[in-house]
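Form 12-C: Joint structure prediction
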Amino acid sequence: MINPFRSEAEAYRFLLVTVGYFAAIAIAALAIDKWAGLAVFGALTLAGLVYVARGRRSEPPRQQVPSRQGKENERRILVIANETVGGGPLREEIRRRSEGYDEQVFVVSPALNSPLRHWASDEDNARAQAQKRLNASLTRLREVGIDAKGEVGDAEPLQAMEDALRLFGADEIIISTHPEGRSHWLERGIVEAARERFAVPITHVVVDLEAEQEQVR
Amino acid sequence: MEAHAEAHHGPPVANQSSRVDATTLGMLLFIASEIMLFGSFFTAYFFVRVVNGASEWPPHPFHLPVFVAGVNTVILLTSSFTMHWSLQSIKRGNRAGLQAGLVLTLCLGLTFLLTQAREYSRIGFAPHDGGFGSVFYGLTGLHGAHVFVGLTLLTFATVRAFRGHFTPEAHWGVEIPGIYWHFVDVMWIVVYTTVYIL
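Section 2 - Result
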């Protein structure tokens, strides 16, 4: 996020840019006429906007390498899942990947919310729902003998992963989604974005909850 | 092997995401509120200017001391330089530079404020002399109030600097007044250019 007042040094730089910007406008307006001043104002403002937009686009994604926190034979797995957090394929994948290791599993359940409620800071219900899903998931993982902890995360999955990695230095990440066509995360390219952003192996697990429910019936 | 969700006793822990850190968010909200405040005054200024429709600005018989205000602008810009110097000094462990920079910034800021007060006393019109008088005193007075707040913050920082506070690692008490001081300068550049020059 661009904030010219993040530090004193940045604020000082912003002041110098402001001086140059207004000096150019004033010189054009006084030396030629007010229309020249207006033209300089327009040109400089446009140039500034283009500079900011290009700077943002060319910024390489920040690749984050979580610090290793565990013992030699320990496997630290970060799981990120929304409604699919209790899905069978996810449990099976976690069990498979932790086989032969002293596993530490950390499950993050993003507090999915509507944009309107998010901006109104009305997150209580979303967090309560996410907590319910998380508790159910952790209980099922315990049933198959997997050591797991968890927390409710940010509604934005990439942010939730980043938050969790700060506390839990994972060896790998498992992202669980609905199948293609029903998953908002896949539509938004969350898995690819996570692979660019985090320097740990990332496994994508598809959980078809409808098919699972059909099988139960 | 044991599974458990994070359990808390007492009131629930407040959710805190790292999407925007607290200090950045605070500064963003503060700047947004300041922009809205100054924006409302600038709106009033341009409204008066456009509605007035006079070929010359400021309208007859008002006259603004552009040169004195220009000198005052240079004084304020110099104070930003000394502010930056003081912070760079403490970052390098130079306490004398920090103290000298803060004292100079304080003196220059005070000079700016006194010059503005002197300008008010000799300018020849008052806030109740029409729309122009109102918006002129409103804008420059609002900025003057910000300078006063900045000087108060700088006074605290200066006293603390002379009492041995601040180190190259911990100088948040100078950084924050510094950010505020530069913001006040930025606003003055906008005020001076639009009100006095253009």
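Section 3 - Comments
The two ends of chain B are 74 Å apart (CA to CA). Chain B has five helices and no strands.
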